[in-house]
Task: inverse folding
């Protein structure tokens, strides 16, 4: 799978699926979640309500509605609590499950935000390292292109640094 980075608005990308950094209730939130809900239109909230929820470390899919992307994969990352409550493992699980769902849908391209590194408080370098390490280790059937989307320069730098390390922590 080819992995690249992009600085900008995830909702504008022409990919088969975009990943929403969702909460367990699948309700509209702030940040990237709010932007995706706004761009997708009100049908997204209705589709999420029909699903009802999603466990931390997992993901579910809905149509993309008004987005260029055909699907939205709602991945629930962990809230950071110091790193002693399996946060990195739960985050890795959310990325893996998102790719599994993309494969099930036949998506050839996918875009991810830096899940859990915003309001959920995961340190940026930790979250980006987990994302890259997890994605590099996967061998998906249909998903051939993955875009890691940063909404600001520090996130872009952290993602690019993680990619340069090949997904291996600098520790």
Result:
């Amino acid at each position: 799978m080819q992995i690249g980075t992009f600085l900008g608005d995830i909702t504008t990308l022409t990919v088969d699926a975009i990943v929403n950094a969702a909460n367990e209730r699948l309700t509209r939130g702030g940040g990237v979640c709010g932007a995706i809900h706004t761009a997708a239109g009100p049908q997204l909230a209705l589709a999420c309500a029909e699903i009802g929820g999603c466990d931390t470390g997992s993901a579910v899919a809905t149509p993309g509605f008004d987005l260029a992307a055909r699907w939205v994969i709602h991945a629930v990352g962990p809230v950071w609590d110091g790193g002693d409550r399996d946060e990195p493992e739960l985050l890795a699980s959310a990325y893996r499950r998102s790719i599994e769902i993309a494969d099930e849908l036949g998506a050839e391209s996918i875009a991810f935000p830096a899940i859990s590194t915003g309001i959920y408080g995961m340190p940026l370098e930790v979250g980006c390292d987990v994302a890259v390490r997890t994605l590099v280790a996967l061998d998906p059937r249909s998903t051939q292109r993955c875009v890691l989307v940063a909404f600001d320069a520090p996130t872009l730098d952290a993602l690019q640094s993680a990619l340069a390390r090949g997904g291996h922590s600098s520790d």
Notes: The CA atoms of residues 103 and 141 lie 6 Å apart.
